Amino acid sequence: MIPDATEKKRLYDEARAAVLTMWDGEPDAIARMASAACILAQTMPHYFWTGFYRVVGGELVIGPYQGTPGCLRIKWGRGVCGAAWSTGETQVVADVHAFPGHIACDSRSESEIVVPVKDSQGRVIAVFDVDSTELGAFDEVDRAALEGLFGKWLT
Ligand code: SME
C-alpha cells in the first residue's frame, strides 16, 4: 500500500525521530544501519526490501537489511545501487524493469529508491536501498525524507 503524500510525510517524521533517538551516542556504522533499516521497514507500508550495501574493497557488499535474501555483492556502476554509488546521487526508479542493468534479487520488486550515504569528505560509504512490490512507489517525498535522514549520518 502506497500512503498518500500527507501520510507518507507523517510516517517519515515518526521514523526519523525514532532513528535519530537510536543513533544518539552510537558511533558504530553497522548498529546505525541495522536500527535505521529496522525502523524504516517497520514504519513504511510501501517498503518491501529495505537495507544497506556498504562500500568494501571496491564493491558494494550487503549490509543490514530487512526482507527476502538480497544479492551479496554489486560491482561499481551496476544496477540501481551501483548507479547511486558511482554518481553520488539518489536514484528514484518508478519501474525497475525499464532501468538498464537492474539487478533483480527478488522478482516481486517493481520500483526502487537508492540513497547514497556519505562520510564527512563526501565520499559514498554505503547506499540505502528500498524496493517496493508496487510500481511508482517512491517520489520526491521519499527522496527528501531519506536524504534528510542520511544527511544526519555523521552528526
Ligand atoms: N535491485 C538492486 C539490487 C539490490 S536488491 O534490490 C536488494 C539494483 O539494481 O541495484
Percentage of β-strand residues: 25-35%
Described by its quaternary structure, the protein is single chain
Bound molecules: methionine sulfoxide
**Which strand order do you get reading across the main beta sheet?**
3-2-1-6-5-4
* Whole-number tally of structural domains: 1
Order of helices and strands: HHEEEHEEEH
Helix/strand-derived category reads: alpha+beta
CATH fold name, please?
Beta-Lactamase
Largest sheet: 6 strands, antiparallel
Number of E-type strands: 6
| Helix run count | 4
Q: Which architecture would the CATH scheme give at its second level? A: 2-Layer Sandwich
Helix content: 25-40%
CATH class group:
Alpha Beta
Taking all Cα atoms into account, the compactness measure Rg is 14 Å
